[in-house]
């Protein structure tokens, strides 16, 4: 007589969260203001405004944009704001910073919008490995939302997890 193999993980109340499932589609681009500076150092207002006016903003359609200046120059903040007025009709999201700051901002928004009702008094496991880049901060933000409501929180895979919290 052979015993039936039972998948205890599948039949448990354990809820898996894979942040990669929430990864939004859309190209991430780095917009560098340095290309519009005189000698990569000085922002000349008239020339800068001409560059903004003559740029093809449609190329940022449905893209996530990290807006920065990669050289050590003093950039008045209005320059970022001016560019943002042109990017806004086309892009999905704009942040001042690098691509990592962009990902953090994207995931902050995603995690802030998660409905947490399904996790109340449930054991939750957060999948750790993903093929796409998920900022470490996203995991921290998710844990912060789960600890007050979940029965337990683990990290990893169901077969080999790291317990993090238990009520």
Task: Describe the protein in words.
- By secondary structure, the protein is an alpha/beta fold.
- It folds into two domains: 8-24 and 103-166, no CATH class; 28-91, no CATH class.
- It has helices at 8-11, 45-54, 77-87, 99-113, 136-146; strands at 15-17, 28-32, 64-68, 93-96, 123-126, 152-157, 160-166.
- The strands form two sheets. A four-stranded mixed beta sheet has the order 1-5-6-7, covered by helices on one side.
- A hairpin with a 2-residue loop joins strand 6 (152-157) and strand 7.
- The radius of gyration is 22 Å and the shape is elongated.
- The mean pLDDT is 91.
Summary?
The protein is an alpha/beta fold and 167 residues long. The chain is built from five helices and seven strands.
